Amino acid sequence: MTFVVTESCIKCKYTDCVEVCPVDCFHEGPNFLVIDPEECIDCTLCEPECPVEAILPDDDLPDDQAHFLALNEELSRLWPVITVRKDPPEDADKWDNVKDKLEYLER
Length: 107
Description:
By secondary structure, the protein is largely without helices or strands. It has helices at 67-76, 92-95; strands spanning 3-5, 26-28, 33-35, 55-57. The strands form 2 sheets. Strands 1-4 form a two-stranded antiparallel ribbon. A two-stranded antiparallel ribbon has the order 2-3.
């Protein structure tokens, strides 16, 4: 099993989760984080750290978020590892309850 960053993270990009990861499996894009499923050890430490509940176990993904498993895998190959918490975007709180944000994902 692996954990997956889902749509809720887009444009919020809170990074509280990266500091607790013991294997540095988070990767950072312009406005989204992803988890490398090959590196994730299913430790569960990151899930409760996310203030927008964007991190879920792959076997608990809702149907409308299932495609994020493949997206996390794809983008983790392209984006650099992030291990240190950063401030969220200035408008993150504006986006944290918005649905259907995939169109805003910056690659």
